Structure prediction request, 556 residues.
Amino acid sequence: MEKKEDGLHLFPELFLTGYPLKDLCFQKPFITSYLTLLAKIGQISSKMKKREDECYLLGGLHYTFSKEEGSHPFQIQNVIFQLIPGEELTVIYSKTVLPNYDIFDEKKYFTPGDSPKIIGFAGHHIGLTICEDIWPHSSHHYRPDCELKKLMDSSGIKLDLVINLSASPFTLNKHLMRTERVEQLSLYLKAPVAYVNRVGGEDEILFDGHSFVYNGKEITHQLALFQPDTCTFELAAIKSEFSKKDAPMPAIEDEVDLSQTLSVLNSSAPTLKELSERNCHDITLALTFALREYADKCGFKSFLVALSGGLDSALVLTIAKMALRPGEHLEAIFMPGVYSSGLSSDLSEELCTNLSIPLTRLPIKFLHSVTRNVMKECYSEELVGIADENVQSRLRSMLLYTRSNTSNAMVINTSNKSELAVGYSTQYGDSVGALSLLGDLYKSEIFDLSRYINQKYQNIIPPAIIERPPTAELRDGQQDDHSLLPYPKLDAILEGILSDHLDLNNFDKFGFNHDEVEMVLKLFKRSEYKRFQFCPIVKLKSKSFGFGHRVPITSF
Prediction:
């Protein structure tokens, strides 16, 4: 959020560095480049005419070194810099609450601040916070909102605005959570709040922007979702009357009771809640944005998707087409084997026709036959069962990456969260790819999203792909539900395991079949080694595989 000329210009948390940095913030080349950037900004500012009515607040890092030249920093803080034209860049606030859960591990890198901050600008009093500072939790031993209130009361200052500079990752329904939290903060401190969030993709983590201004009664300014955006607002225009009665301090975000988290399930017939139309809209935006961000930052302009005739690969190809920009190229490859049906071939061709995408056929029948013969000659036994199924999948990945090498194209993974959870994929086979678009969506949700896209884009995915029984086509008559529970049952159990941390006894209380849950738990536990070697998964949920799911392989 910024004003074009004079005024207060606001930029997100760690705007000057990016987020999350992980161990990059310890590396000397990064530190040198960053300090050089700060010096350049300072030089530019010092040459400008001093203006008291213009100020920039920017998120960044503040390094503290020992006196020894070139030494390792002994303290790094997540801070707000103030830049006034004609003056030096100055640290005015340090983040006081460092999140240390799920994808966050800021306590590993940063030293927290220890005091609230109110600044004056153009006759106004403005309270400063950074991201987690406004999210009280039982694990936090400091309450920035309460400390700001104490400072206001002791000094007799009435705030005209509270600022929160954030790098808040996207998850479904996150915007509602943010607005509810900001409303509580606004009423408690009796001031409007400007929530300024980062936009960008870093590997699997997405920052959706969606910044807004809240005046105690309503959102007065709302910025775009998943794209850079700015707005200008006048404090006088957004002011509203706050109740003279003190509002309660914002409630602590404590551990959620398991029975409450199961509200995502239907306890009378346990299944996942169907994705809403709004969910599907946001997911589509998130996935297209994620692919563009990843491709831009890794230097890809060409993309490859292996089509099987099934729904997962069809949806991935469709989303990739939506994300495609002028000058970029998308190609599909269909690699039929001895068990591939004519229907799979026809549906793949129909999909590519609908999407105007070239389709290449690379049969694996001959390679499969040669592999079986070689193995029989060397080991005097037939290649059968799971070994034979996996060979087909790995032959396909070999051809896929051969084409990737010759065309300099990025391979997009086509696995879903249900398969990842129970290991229903071939390591170095259908699990390959640079980025997983569907790895945080259960198979049930794949159907929801596909139907939404077809409703919006006139059945661009051939309906027969959605209607046919899921199958890997690696043996005669194979269907997914011959090896797994039906997906509605399976997905409900998996969500209970991953997000709600339920054990067998908890599942029994909610009417799940004991034997089915036990089987799924075993599959879930023994598949960790596959997930550990999987590609980055675009994070859409509050609990996802990948960076936010870190458990030992050998003792899980």
Notes: The longest strand covers residues 54-64.
